[in-house]
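Final report, closing paragraph on structural work. Over the funding period we assembled a curated collection of sequence-structure pairs, and we close with a single example.
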Amino acid sequence: MNTSALDKAIAETTKETGKYLTFTLADEGYGIGILKVKEIIGMITITPVPRTPDFVKGVINLRGKVLPVIDLRLKFNMGEIPYTERTCIIVVEIDANDETVPVGIVVDSVSEVQGISPDDIEAPPAFGSRLTTDYILGMGKTDTGVKILLNIDKVLDQADISKLTPQT
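Its predicted structure, as stored:
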C-alpha cells in the first residue's frame, strides 16, 4: 500500500475517533477501528455449520439475530487453541458488496480501547510480492509496543464472505 493510500485508509478508519479496540492473538497485539466494533461478548455456544471453511466456527444467536462467527487465529493460520475465560467474540460490521454484514470474530482476549494518532501509524512492512498485506491498515506505535491495525473489511475478502453461508 502506498503512502497516500495508507493515509486515506487511516483517515477513513479514524476520521471520527482515532481509537482502536485492541486485542491479542497468540500474544501479539492487534487493533480494529472502534467504529467497526458493535459489541464484545463472552464466549457463547457456537453452532457449527457443515461445509464451511475451518476458520468459520459456525453461527450464534445474538438477541434473535443469527451471526456467522470466524476464529481469527484460524483465519491467520496461527493454529487452534482451547478457548479460555478470556476468549471473546467481537461483533464487527464488515462492508461487503454495498451492504454491511455483522460478523463475530473470536480473539484470545480483548485489551482496551486505545487512542492511536495517525502520526503514530506506519505502513506495514513489505514482505515481497508473494504475500499480500492489504488487510493490515498499518502498524500502530503505542507505549506498550506495536499493534497490528487491521482493516477488518479486508480481513475477509468477498470469497470468504460468500463462504460464511453453507454451500449447497
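The CA atoms of residues 123 and 138 lie 5 Å apart. The chain has four helices and eleven strands. We thank the funder for supporting this effort.
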